[in-house]
Amino acid sequence: MNKTVIIATFSFLVLACSRNNNEYVASGTFEAIETIVPAETNGIITSFNIIEGQRLDEGIIIGQIDTIPLFLKKKQLEGQIKATGARQPNIIVQTGYYKKQEEASQSRLDYLIKERKRIQNLIKADAATTKQLDDINIQIEETQKQIQIIQKQNEAQVSALKTQNSGLQSDVLPLTAQIDLINYQLAKSKIINPVHGTVLTKYAESKEMAVTGKPLYKMADLSTLILRAYITGDQFAKVKIGQGVTIMVDNGEGGYKKYVGTVEWISDKAEFTPKTIQTKDERANLVYAVKIRVKNDGYLKIGMYGEVILNTNGSSGTTK
Predict the structure, then answer these.
(1) Domain 36-64+190-220 belongs to what topology?
(2) Sign of the C-alpha dihedral, residues 249, 251, 252, 255?
(3) Other residues' Cβ atoms within 10 Å of the Cβ of residue 200
């Protein structure tokens, strides 16, 4: 979100005269903090429901940018992920053959061990020969070796399948990241007002093409305005941040409206009087910029002139 400060064309004239021993007068114009709201994604604006001068709350949806291309792209990526998942081998199913072989061999081994014990008992009773025991021992040894071979084959197959799965999962990761990006862009396709304020200028309309970063509208919070004025060097030492001041604004009837203002910023660098002042001598004077925050009752406008009475005793004026 791009924020700039509106600085209306100043014809700030520092009035060197003083009204009494503790008042100094300067003049300036009002400005406001302006927010230019850009489009955050590309597409045709399908709706954009604001008008200039309208007051908007923060966080409300005021428009929509077409999302069909993004939606279709997301569907395509989801299809690719599904197809990749379908190529992933089922390790349990594809190693089931070895499991069955191992179970069969283990059953034979259990049988042979029981048979050896039976033969050993027969030998003690002189009812069997040692050759029978030797034969059964050979069969047991062969079966044990067979089980070991099956287990190694199973481990090798599982390892190969896991490697294959890992590669396919790696293929899915960039697709998932693209979907996350599209979800972000889909969220940004909703035009959501970021700050509370009043619409100053509308740059786009429905059915126009929105481009990422291109301004859609400009707004500012006009409930409080800033009066930028300039004070001379001899006044500089008598002004402090937080000081109350009186702002005089022409009421259009030959009189003035008074407002309470608070000094919120004082430049620490001197500059020449703005060039809008006509005489060379006046332009040669060094002055200091000040910003005065003024609560707006609806009468104050950006660019309107105001006269500042700086009260050296720190007292504030009263609004009338």
Answers:
(1) OB fold (Dihydrolipoamide Acetyltransferase, E2P) (2.40.50)
(2) negative
(3) 18
Q: What are the extents of the domains in the chain?
A: 1-32+222-320, 36-64+190-220, 69-188
Q: Positive or negative CA dihedral for 198, 203, 207, 208? A: negative
Sign of CA dihedral 87, 89, 90, 93: positive
Tokens coding 109: 């081994």
pLDDT tens digit at each of 320 positions of the chain: 444 333 333 333 333 334 444 455 788 999 999 999 999 999 999 999 999 999 999 999 999 999 999 999 999 999 999 988 888 888 888 888 888 998 999 999 999 999 999 989 998 888 888 899 899 999 999 999 999 999 999 988 888 888 888 888 888 899 999 999 999 999 999 999 999 999 999 999 999 999 999 999 999 999 999 999 988 877 888 889 999 999 999 988 888 999 999 999 998 888 776 655 444 445 547 888 999 999 999 999 999 999 998 765 544 444 44
